[in-house]
Write a structure and sequence with these properties.
Blueprint: E1 3-9, H1 18-27, E2 31-38, H2 44-54, E3 59-64, H3 70-82, E4 90-94, H4 105-114, E5 120-122, E6 132-134, H5 137-154, E7 165-169, H6 174-177, E8 198-200
């Protein structure tokens, strides 16, 4: 399945894991990236162009000169991914710090391929027996407050709204999903299932 991940980037010039992404792309020819610069004030734009030059058929750069925040950067990146000459079957977004390792796609994509009724997969940092989640305590508790507020507001049973690993199946309504700035306009009944993966929070990540 052709998959395109949007990677929002803000001031990532000194910490973007270029080789991690490039190595994974070399092993997965059906994967592509939209590296979306959110008005960075450092040399992120030049760094993203350098990454593009190393894998021009798989890396696309969306360079936004005005900082609008992560949500809007992801939304515009998704629309860019949907407009590519070879539209993907799956789109998603991934945090630039790869706190969720890219090889988590090995767990997520087969589910999308084998179960056509599943329209989206959201990563979630749930510290259960046999699962590995490494985060600072303050980030965990602040994240729980925010995630609970969002879950109640939207009426959706999503434990972790902030995990930067999400996939969506491309279909007739996908364009409309990202046509306008995100809000609570699309609340629908959703059945959720869980599978374990490893998630690591880098000290310098946002």
């Amino acid at each position: 399945m052709k998959t395109c991940l949007v990677v929002p980037c803000y001031n990532e010039a000194q910490r973007f894991p270029q080789e991690t992404f490039l190595s994974f792309l070399a092993q997965h020819p059906d994967l592509s990236l939209v590296l979306a610069n959110d008005g960075s004030t450092d040399s992120t734009a030049a760094m993203l162009q350098l990454v593009h030059s190393k894998a021009p058929s798989q890396v696309h750069v969306l360079d936004r000169t005005v900082n609008k925040g992560k949500a809007e950067t992801v939304r515009e990146g998704m629309l860019h991914a949907l407009s590519l000459p070879q539209p993907p079957d799956i789109i998603g977004f991934w945090d630039a710090d790869v706190a969720t390792p890219l090889n988590a796609l090995h767990d997520m994509l087969p589910i999308m391929a084998s179960r056509p009724g599943i329209q989206m997969i959201f990563g979630a940092r749930v510290n259960l027996l046999g699962w590995h989640v490494r985060r600072q305590a303050i980030r965990h508790y602040l994240g729980r407050v925010f995630a609970t507020a969002v879950s109640v507001m939207l009426g959706l049973g999503i434990y972790d709204t902030q995990c930067g690993a999400k996939l969506f199946r491309v279909g007739p309504h996908t364009q409309g999903l990202f046509a306008e700035p995100f809000s609570s306009r699309d609340r629908k009944s959703t059945r959720l299932n869980s599978s374990p993966t490893d998630i690591f929070r880098m000290p310098s990540s946002a």
